[in-house]
Amino acid sequence: MNQLLAQLEQYKKEIETSIVSNKEDLETFRIKYLGTKGLLKTIMGEMKHVPVDQKKEAGQLLNEFKVFVESFYSELSAKMESSESAIKNEIDISLPGHPLPLGSRHPISIVHNKIVSIFQRLGFSVAEGPEIEDDWHNFTALNLPENHPARDMQDTFYISQNPDWLLRTHTSSVQIREMQKNDLPLRIICPGRVYRNETISARAHCFFNQVEGLYIAENVSFADLKQTLYFFVKEMFGEGVKVRFRPSYFPFTEPSAEMDISCLICSGKGCSVCKRTGWVEILGCGMVHPSVLDNCGIDSNKYTGFAFGMGIERITMLTYQVKDLRLFSENDVRFLKQFTQA
After folding, report:
1. Nearest CA to 213 among 232, 194, 196?
2. Model-level pTM?
3. Which residues contact 192 (CB under 8 A, 6 or more apart)?
4. Helices then strands (H, E): number in the chain?
């Protein structure tokens, strides 16, 4: 009996010197002394080895020890709750909370909105159309014969269930839909996403954004086209940018041209973006081919018009001097958060 008493006294000292500073320590204490495999259960199990004539006295000692352990645990729990409550009461809930970080517009959206704004000041309205198009609106009406390279599977994403349907390769299909309405004169821009089956690189992607423009009326000339695009470049990039037109070929315009501006990234000295030439092509343009007008039910003997189209990603690269087009579609927050609200 004396041995049991000495053992219990030793356990009491051990318990009283236990360090409990957080909830994890408190749970460890409970498991060690009050758990199903804890010290208290183990000691109580030793009662079966106590002689019969000593069971009463031993039982009293063990009950006193049980009360001691449970009371000590209750005091620790109460102190822990009191400490947490005091910490909570120290928080001034009248203070403003931590502000949520504000996002920023995607650079493509910023440039898209600026382009639209510039042309709207010239009287152009915005027209939109479906991204899944039929062959006639995307190719045939635009004077592209069946054997034209643009119809090749390497350039176009066709809908496998129906080869007459495809993901539009340009927003010119929207122009066709608007011309079919025969509501002239017509002055529109057609922004939207387009798709081409191309190898993804720093300068090309399988999907990108375009803005195409169209003006149909009587006596529209190439001079009108040039002055419209001169105005756009000056508003978009500033007065110091140089501009040049180069003859080109597009099935849906005649005559056709490509418009270059002096490279804003290298200031015309030559870099990887301008292929060391100092010039960057930003759009294609030309006078609407008479066959396209006739396909849409417009009298090509009475009406003329011009059209142009540009990739928004290319304009954005020049605006922000970004050298890799792929950055715009990777959704890297470290890249996107550089651009301010606009």
Report:
1. 232
2. 0.68
3. 128, 129, 131, 168, 171, 174, 209, 210
4. 11, 9
Residue 104, amino acid = S
Q: Which of 298, 264, 289, 294 is nearest to 279 (CA)?
A: 264
Helix axis angle for 2-16 and 55-89, nearest 10°, is 0
C-alpha pair distances (Å), 4 with each of 9, 39, 54, 63, 298: 9, 14, 11, 13, 111
Query: H helices of 181-245, where?
Result: 222-237
Strands (DSSP E) along 223-313, which ranges? Answer: 243-250, 253-262, 279-288, 304-311
Task: Supply φ then ψ for residue 197, to 5 degrees.
Answer: -80, 75
Residue 182 tokens, joined: 């025969």
Q: Residue 64 in 3-state DSSP?
A: helix
Positions of the chain with pLDDT lower than 70, given as ranges: 1-5, 48, 83-91, 150, 153-154, 340-342
Per-chain mean pLDDT for the chain: 86
Tell me the three state secondary structure of residue 50. Answer: coil
122 phi and psi angles, rounded to 5 deg:
-95, 5
